[in-house]
């Protein structure tokens, strides 16, 4: 079972990179945040507009084609958030202010590994408040053609069962089931990279997508095998990355999940859809506190950022932003 106490970072984390679609440089800083803050993006660098706060919540998702986007074009967006969100969820970090000066979280090596490394280097501290969970009370399911996703009650934490089935000899059909905790995430999921097909690259480029994609951040699948010289990090790296994405997308529930997730041929759209279905009926779930434990010496650290003015978006709108090539 996950920890019962809320957590934040012990220090500020900074990362620089490029967006996988824009190819533009972007800087990101993870700030410690107060109890109950949750994960919130502070979008800066909006030309002629005030900085914008965007909650990392299913309520503010605006695009889910091949990446997950929060915010809206009128107030600012943050795209390709799933790898960062996966790292925060996988390590059990509840409260963070994510300051970012561009429209896309940096792709780094195409996995969550460098986010994990930076977060662990900064350190994670417990806070003097109980963690809340969203507990699945009854099964919910969505279908889209042959694809489906479902959440079911589960008494042992958070289980993910993800299966992919590509009409491609290199990938084929793969399935992975895990009971998620920090150790499983770090060992089996975090370093699985995003992937794409060489046959699609030119089409994406012509459409203005994947301009930052390269063999440094993407597993490229050709007709005869993986193009990357180093090969795969796991024999089933493809399904592990889909599982990594699912963790990041389901983190948008706003609370750690107590339940079992099953997906077949899913993706960002299905991950978001199952959250929407879960929260569509109050009978589907309950918000519950973690078990009561003795308080330990832990300091609550307030969100830190100097200057600027930020506004919270009033609602959700469709953002015209490119998908991740995955």
UniProtKB/TrEMBL annotation:
Its EC number is 3.5.1.108. Catalyzes the hydrolysis of UDP-3-O-myristoyl-N-acetylglucosamine to form UDP-3-O-myristoylglucosamine and acetate, the committed step in lipid A biosynthesis. One of its GO terms (molecular function) is UDP-3-O-acyl-N-acetylglucosamine deacetylase activity. The lineage of its organism: Bacteria, Pseudomonadati, Pseudomonadota, Alphaproteobacteria, Hyphomicrobiales. This is UDP-3-O-acyl-N-acetylglucosamine deacetylase. Belongs to the LpxC family. One of its GO terms (biological process) is lipid A biosynthetic process. It comes from Chelatococcus asaccharovorans. SUPFAM superfamilies: Ribosomal protein S5 domain 2-like (SSF54211). Pathway: Glycolipid biosynthesis; lipid IV(A) biosynthesis; lipid IV(A) from (3R)-3-hydroxytetradecanoyl-[acyl-carrier-protein] and UDP-N-acetyl-alpha-D-glucosamine: step 2/6. Gene3D superfamilies: lpxc deacetylase, domain 1, lpxc deacetylase, domain 2. The keyword Hydrolase applies. The keyword Mitochondrion does not apply. Keywords: Hydrolase, Lipid A biosynthesis, Lipid biosynthesis, Lipid metabolism, Metal-binding, Zinc. Zn(2+) binds at residues 83, 241, 245. The active site is at residue 268. It catalyses: a UDP-3-O-[(3R)-3-hydroxyacyl]-N-acetyl-alpha-D-glucosamine + H2O = a UDP-3-O-[(3R)-3-hydroxyacyl]-alpha-D-glucosamine + acetate. It comes from the Bacteria. One of its GO terms (cellular component) is membrane. Its cofactor is Zn(2+).
